[in-house]
Amino acid sequence: MCKEVVNKLTGEIHFISSPKLLRSLEEHNAICSNSYVASQVPQRNGIACPECGEELYDTNPNMTLTSMVPKKVTHCVCGYTGYRNC
Questions:
Q1: Omega into 41 within 30° of 0, i.e. cis?
Q2: CA dihedral 21, 26, 27, 30 (to 10 degrees)
Q3: Are 65 and 72 in contact (CB under 8 A)?
Q4: What is the pLDDT of residues 9-53, one digit of tens each?
Q5: pLDDT at residue 18, as a whole number
Q6: Is the dihedral angle over the CA atoms 31, 33, 35, 38 positive or is it negative?
Q7: Is the separation of the CB atoms in 28 and 36 below 8 Å?
Q8: Whether the Cβ atoms of residue 60 and residue 42 lie closer than 8 Å to each other
Q9: CA dist., res. 31 & res. 36, Å (int)
Q10: Residue 45 to residues 6, 7, 12, 55, 73: CA-CA distances in angstroms?
Q11: How far apart are CA 37 and CA 12, in angstroms?
Q12: 64: Cβ contacts below 8 Å, ≥ 6 apart
C-alpha cells in the first residue's frame, strides 16, 4: 500500500511504498558532532615549511576559507603561519 505525501515547499506529490528505517535528527546531530570534535585536531599535510623545512599542519582541518582559490590555514612548529590552496 502506498502513502501519498505532499511536499509543503514545492507542492509536489510523492508516493512512499514502504517505511524507511531512518534515524532521528537528534541521533544524526549527536553522531556528526562527535566526529566533528574528533577531527578538529591539527593534521600534517605533507608540505614543507618555507622557513625551516619541517612538515606543515593544517591548523583547523574542517575550515576552508572561501577565497578564490579556496585556502586552508597552515602552521609549523617553528612559528610560521600561512595559507595553502585546496
A1: no
A2: 160
A3: yes
A4: 888 887 777 667 888 899 888 887 776 666 678 889 999 999 999
A5: 66
A6: negative
A7: no
A8: yes
A9: 9
A10: 47, 44, 46, 7, 11
A11: 38
A12: 70, 71, 72, 86
The confidence score (pLDDT) of residue 66 equals 94
- The shares of helix, strand and coil residues in the chain, as percent rounded to the nearest 5, are 15, 35, 50
pTM over 0.85: no
Q: Are 14 and 7 in contact (CB under 8 A)?
A: yes
- CA angle at 55 for the pair 52 and 60, rounded to the nearest 5°: 115
pLDDT at res. 19:
66
Residue 69 banded pLDDT, cuts 50, 70, 90? very high
CA angle 60, 66, 40 (to 5 degrees): 15
